[in-house]
Amino acid sequence: VSFDEEKGVCRVNEALCKGCGACVGGCPSHAISLNHYTNEQIVAQMEGALV
């Protein structure tokens, strides 16, 4: 994830994305979505990582 200072937004490099969902959970404005996964699947992944 990198920050675009001109536009004031963060950008995810899809080529480096591992599909973990960390960027989705960390986005304070909920502007990021993870393709090919439901919100429930993302939450389950994050909960599993914390246990």
Description:
The chain has a domain at 19-51. Helix content is 33%, strand content 12%. It contains two helices and two strands. The chain has helices spanning 22-26, 39-50, and strands at 2-4, 9-11. The longest helix is centred in the last third of the chain and has 12 residues, at 39-50. The chain starts with a strand and ends with a helix.
Give a quick precis of the structure.
With 51 residues, this protein is of the alpha+beta class.
Fold topology:
Elements: E1 2-4, E2 9-11, H1 22-26, H2 39-50
Pfam families: Fer4 (PF00037)
Protein name: 4Fe-4S ferredoxin-type domain-containing protein
Organism: marine sediment metagenome
Keyphrases for this structure?
4Fe4S_Fe-S-bd; 51 residues; 12% strand; 4Fe-4S ferredoxin-type domain-containing protein; 4Fe4S_Fe_S_CS; alpha+beta; two-stranded antiparallel sheet
- Ranges where pLDDT stays below 50 over 5 or more residues in a row are none
Instruction: Enumerate how many helices there are, as a single number.
Output: 2
What is the string of helix and strand elements? EEHH
Task: Identify the strand order in the major beta sheet.
Answer: 1-2
Proportion of residues in β-strands: 5-15%
Largest sheet: 2 strands, antiparallel
Overall body shape: elongated
Mean pLDDT over the full residue set: 85
Radius of gyration: 12 Å
Number of DSSP strands? 2
For the termini, the CA-CA separation is 25 Å
| Amount of helix | 25-40%
Q: Would you tell me the structural class of the helices and strands? A: alpha+beta
